[in-house]
Amino acid sequence: MVRELERKPQSAEFPVTAPAANPVFFRTYSRRNDLGMRESWSRVCDRTIKGLVELGKLTPQEAELLTKMERSIKALPSGRWLWVGGTEWIKKPRNFSGGYNCTSTNLEDWKAFGLMMDLAMMGCGTGAILEPKYINKLPPIRNKLNVILQGEIGATPVQLRREETFVKIEANQVTIYVGDSRIGWVKSYQTILELSTDNRFTDEVKVIVDLSDVRKAGETLKGFGGVANPVKLPELYTNCASILNKAIGRQLNSVECCLLIDQAAVTIVAGNIRRSAGIRQGASNDTLFADAKANLWQQDAEGNWRIDPERDALRMANHSRVYHYKPTLEECIDAVRKQYYSGEGAIQWAGEAVARSNCDLLSTKELKIDFLKAYEKGQAKQWLQERHPNIDDNEIEHRLGRFGLNPCGEIIGSNFFCNLAEVHLNLLDPDNYREQEEAFTAGALSVAALLHHKFLEPRYQYSRELDPIVGVSFTGLFDFFVHALGVEWLRWWEQGRPETPQGLTFKAKEQEYLTRWKEIVHKVVWQYCDKHGLKRPNRCTTVQPSGTKSLLTGASPGWHPPKAQRFIRRITCRKNDPVALACLDYGYTIVPSQSDKDENGNLLHDPFDPRCTEWLVEIPVAVSWADLPGASEIDISKFNALAQTDFYMQVQKHYVTHNTSATIELRENEIEILGTRIYEAIRDDEGYISAALLARFDDLQTFPRLPFEPISKDKYEQLSQEVERRRKTDDFYAALSRYDFGEMSEAGPAGCDSDKCMMPEQSPN
Length: 765
Hints:
The protein is α/β, with parallel strands linked by helices. It has a domain at 140-250: 2-Layer Sandwich (b-12 dependent (class ii) ribonucleotide reductase, Chain A, Domain 2).
């Protein structure tokens, strides 16, 4: 009977305000069952909740609440857990890391590089701190490596393939037999790095890399999901050797470390993890790091643009500069200017991150301010030792190192894994406080459950024991407040959120909601930890960027305003992807991606053109409050950078205890204004840590086929009617089943679930 039910097509049940939900869900979160059928939303809920109940030892009442909130999409576990939660794969200790979106690693030994590749292969977003105090622990490069590739990929029969990498050393010759597994790839990569500093060798090292055991492109990855694609694997070894050989006789610099990490990321992206999300944190005075991406694009004498091939891999991650002192006004304005023109150069005030990460010791506002004064003077260690003499040196160092960030910047810590959950505020009634409490309680329980994990890697387990952290996030905050406070709240935004009597009333109401939700989360997490004998996290709330999951309910992502009341949302798929073909039957249109051009550089228009490699599904979308009287009269694109910053800081002050993932959109004439505001927020200890900035252009058609294209109400209604006329079926799952064959290439959501990651890179011209 059960097997018969599994064969029956089932449609996912998502809100009518979320037309992109079906394509995104089946593309990103739905796994194949043993019969080769994709999971329905109901099946995903069954699997993920069962996994949380087992791991977290939840009571029947707790399980019932999680079920109620997840099935109604009001509170969801992390994107990673939606993909792997409840599978046999995630129950193995070596795979525990695969259940986390958010990680950060101090880059202080060769193993750290291997660990980061391992994490990225499991879809985790990877943060890396490359400050001198860490990378100076790496040994100097002493051996020249001469890499020779041997063996054809897929040459070894399946039954004879070795899974683990085997390394054979004979005098000055090394043969690396690459194992056909995640661990095999990682060991082969780490081995190349280690050989460059191995003191056993007396001359140039001949490194033979045998790839014959590696499975061919297109073969199934049974445990994690997706399919193999080792197309970039051979280049990994030769490119890494080239980087290392240039540093013979000295230690690596921060940019070379970035390049080595990013070479692995390039391999992984080609291997069908959708995106490899990364952030690299360098010291504020490291000019080499600060300018790493300068002139990445170069123009020849004929005016043609090309990217510097030796630095191309740097595009795999964002670079942030860490300030251990409060930056000056000039530094803040310069940083904003650099971000406006290049998308890079974000500054992070580490003092605030460290203070928030030690809130268990800084229990009053006065203590925190006093600590921050000591931190800026370089006396933070002495300050802690004098007031807490029972804390050992290792813990002191860990506490002072808790400024590491995950790729989208919403989690702070040191050598950490952090589990996330997300409440969809756009589906909650602003007047129903009981429903809000249930949603945030469910979120708190789902993150707390993963605190039972014990990691095999000592540095991560030490951090988990010393500083257990979780993050309950939300999305759709802007939508929630429109429903709660009305169109007048939108008009106040349009005015720049001034502190008028009405504005102060609005701010007080925002603070009331945000504070209540934070208190619910901490109460539930702490009660859970006390009950299960786990150490309480000292920070439990955050706001992630929430790109993909927001589409399941049609929420405006995270705290951000939507792009417009009505817009075309474009979803990226492979050419001929079954999900995209189902979208055609469902009435949506498909166009070639931005990257598909003819021989003259013109965009292609026919998605079935043989030259087309990637598709964009176009979906007309309206926010849930688009038809409120007066809402259409307000141009959201005119909301200025200071208004966005003001709202973001409300969230940072009153809900978030980690950091708020924020992308402030600004116009050129706002550079100095925003730089000054950031300077003031840091100077006055308002809670600012770091935020991303994005140049805003009033003519959005500067870039064609963006993920979002604002449209008028008339255009929205026209497109919606056309979708209805073209629609061949109301059952998306049934449409999908017509085309569904083979394996999905993607392996769940990316480590950084952000709409901002999908924005085009700044044009070189």
